[in-house]
Design a protein that fits this description.
By secondary structure, the chain is of the alpha+beta class. 44% of the residues lie in helices and 11% in strands. It contains 17 helices and 15 strands. Strands 2, 3, 4, 5 and 6 form a five-stranded antiparallel β-sheet that branches. Strand 13 and strand 14 form a beta hairpin. Helix 13 runs parallel beside helix 14 and helix 14 runs parallel beside helix 15. This is UV radiation resistance-associated gene protein.
Length: 628
């Protein structure tokens, strides 16, 4: 078999047969444009292994526009992980060989040259990379090739001509496929043309304006047929390759593959020497005459449309006048019907007025007869309003009392501070004096007596401010305080000491009665006691609830009860904590302090402050305790 026959057989098996002859291709058959291998870098002619021809000029021309775009991007080199580029250029396969890198079963390539097992390049540096790093690397490599592109089609080849079609913008794409279109509606001048100018506009993501990347003078007769689809096309496409989608398949303009049209014609001549019948001259003339008739009919239709439009424009005034007259007549008819409706409504309203007048007269008679219950209701309403005002006043008084109670509680809490002891749960001190929870010993008798005296004084003050009589009255007297039990029956003694004595059960019963008073105060304000033996914890909880609230504390009201003052010569109770009174107390207590009877750890401005018991501090006299 000769090389020519081999060429014909290879072309037939590799390419499909187009349905349109080259001389029959027109722009009405063009339905879409696609771009492949979009790149703004220059194409090297040495890598292709052939000279630059006129068909490749649009791809290899180095224009200032391409240089401007190329300065903003980097070149993406091809991978050489399988074979050497030098050996590939030296032993380039012929156009008849299949562009594949696979091996045959006998260990030889399709050229018959023995090939060894090639070692793949190492990819160790990619094995430990994270997927995110690989994705970022891939985006860096391909980011400069992702362009925003669109194209325009021109007829005539002049730069001043208006485009017959403008495509949409494909953003960030290297192989854009634009939407299909139809040029039949552009008129016969465009639909019958077989030449056009395709301008591809592109810009990078950082650029501001679009520039012409490819300007291609397309002649539909000189295009190469690729196939109905690209699924069976295995050859690499050049950079910035333009694919034209016609009605019978995909075409492009490159010379790497032999044309399928010449091969098909040569095959037909080789198979059969007979001449196939084509369209006759008469048929072609009939088609031409039919086309002329169609064009004449279209011109006549356009002329008739213009004449009709002119006639309508001349009769516009008459039509407007007639339309206005018709509208006036409609308005008159509407006004007449509205007048009739208004008359009917007026008669209905008059009847309704008479009915309402009679109804009003009846209601007046009913109201006059029911004036007595109304007066009683007004009196009741007045009483209700007074009651509401009284309730509001009582509520306001309760709120003010609550605020005053908060202030009093804060004052009592500052006078008798109850603080917890560190590292001892549920153990508290009152004025820095520790008080156990109903578990007493003889080692701190003076401290216990002082703490119980402070507690009795605080409970007594709280009962007075809460307007609550204690079931077990207290006799607060510092560390020599007493408590009474007038409730229990069958007791030989009614007064019990709140300080340790020689008779332990009397003291313990007195502490129990004090805890019962605290429980009574807590129940008065709505609190529940968890353990009655916890004297200071329960008292601390009570003060915490009494001082709880939002807002600022109310100020103390000025003035007092004049009958309780006892005259001007008697010192006022409100002056006991004044600066002059404190100074006077300090002057009186200085000799006793020098004699060693009173400790010197009190703060100068706090006459009620107290320090932990000292060895020489005496809270009470032993004679009074023995007498109790």
């Amino acid at each position: 078999m000769s090389d020519h026959d081999l060429l014909l057989s290879g072309s037939i098996t590799r390419h499909e047969k187009p349905l349109l002859f080259p001389w029959n291709r027109r722009l009405r058959h063009l339905h879409g444009i696609s771009l492949r291998n979009l790149n703004i870098t220059a194409v090297s002619s040495r890598a292709r292994g052939k000279t630059t021809t006129d068909d490749d000029a649009p791809y290899n021309l180095d224009t200032p526009t391409k240089r401007a775009l190329r300065s903003e991007a980097r070149t993406l080199t091809h991978s050489a992980s399988f074979t050497s580029l030098a050996s590939a250029n030296k032993d380039r396969p012929s156009p008849l060989q299949k562009a594949s890198t696979s091996y045959v079963q006998d260990g030889k390539t399709s050229l018959g040259r023995p090939q060894g097992r090639l070692r793949r390049r190492s990819t160790l540096h990619w094995s430990s990379a994270t997927p995110r790093a690989r994705q970022e690397k891939l985006q860096d490599l391909t980011g400069h090739r992702l362009l925003d592109t669109w194209f325009s089609l021109h007829i005539g080849g002049a730069h001043e001509t208006e485009p017959v079609y403008l495509s949409e913008v494909m953003e960030s794409c290297m192989n854009p496929s634009f939407a299909f279109f139809d040029l039949d509606t552009a008129g016969p001048l465009v639909a019958r043309a077989d030449e056009c100018v395709l301008r591809l506009w592109a810009k990078t993501a950082d650029a501001v304006e679009y520039v012409v990347l490819v300007e291609l003078n397309v002649n539909l007769r000189s295009l190469q047929f690729i196939g109905a689809t690209l699924d069976n096309f295995h050859h690499p496409l050049p950079e910035n390759c333009v694919l034209l989608h016609l009605s019978d398949g995909i075409y492009t303009s490159f010379t790497d593959l032999p044309g399928s049209g010449a091969t098909a014609i040569a095959l037909r001549e080789a198979k059969s020497g007979s001449v196939e019948a084509s369209s006759s001259f008469d048929a072609l003339m009939q088609l031409a005459n039919l086309d002329e008739c169609i064009q004449d009919a279209m011109k006549v239709r356009q002329r008739l449309e213009d004449e009709v439009n002119d006639l309508l424009a001349e009769q516009t005034a008459a039509r407007d006048q007639e339309r206005s007259l018709r509208a006036k007549r409609q308005q008159l008819a509407s006004a007449k019907s509205a007048a009739v409706t208004v008359r009917k409504q007026n008669a209905a309203l008059q009847r309704r007025n008479e009915e309402l007048r009679l109804n009003l007269k009846t209601r007046q008679e009913t109201v006059s007869s029911g004036s007595k219950p109304q007066k009683e209701a007004e009196k009741h309403n007045q009483e209700q309003r007074e009651l509401i005002q009284s309730l509001r006043a009582a509520r306001q008084t309760a709120e003010e009392s609550q605020g005053q109670m908060r202030r009093i509680g804060e004052a009592l809490q500052s006078i008798f501070p109850i603080e917890p002891i560190g590292n001892k749960p549920l153990q508290f001190t009152i004025r820095n004096v520790s008080l156990p929870n109903s578990a007493f010993d003889d080692t701190n008798r003076d401290e216990i007596a002082a703490a119980l005296g402070f507690t009795a004084q605080l409970v007594h003050q709280l009962s007075l401010y809460l307007l609550c009589s204690l079931p077990y009255p207290l006799e607060p007297n510092a560390s020599n305080s007493w408590i009474q039990d007038p409730v229990s029956a069958g007791l030989a003694q009614r007064r019990y000491p709140l300080y340790p004595t020689s008779v332990a059960y009397k003291f313990e019963y007195g502490v129990f009665l004090l805890n019962k008073d605290i429980e009574f105060l807590m129940n008065k304000v709505g609190l529940r006691v968890l353990d009655i033996r916890h004297t200071l914890p329960n008292l601390k909880y009570l003060l915490y609830v009494l001082t709880a609230g939002s807002g600022e504390l109310p100020e103390r009201k000025a003035g007092g009860i004049r009958g309780l003052l006892g005259g001007r010569m008697t010192p006022s109770a409100s002056r006991r904590s004044s600066q002059e009174s404190v100074k006077g107390h300090r002057e009186i207590l200085k000799p006793a302090q020098r004699n060693g009877h009173i400790g010197s750890r009190e703060k100068p401005n706090d006459p009620f402050s107290s320090s932990p018991p000292m060895p020489k501090l005496a809270y009470r006299s032993s004679g009074l305790r023995d007498a109790g």
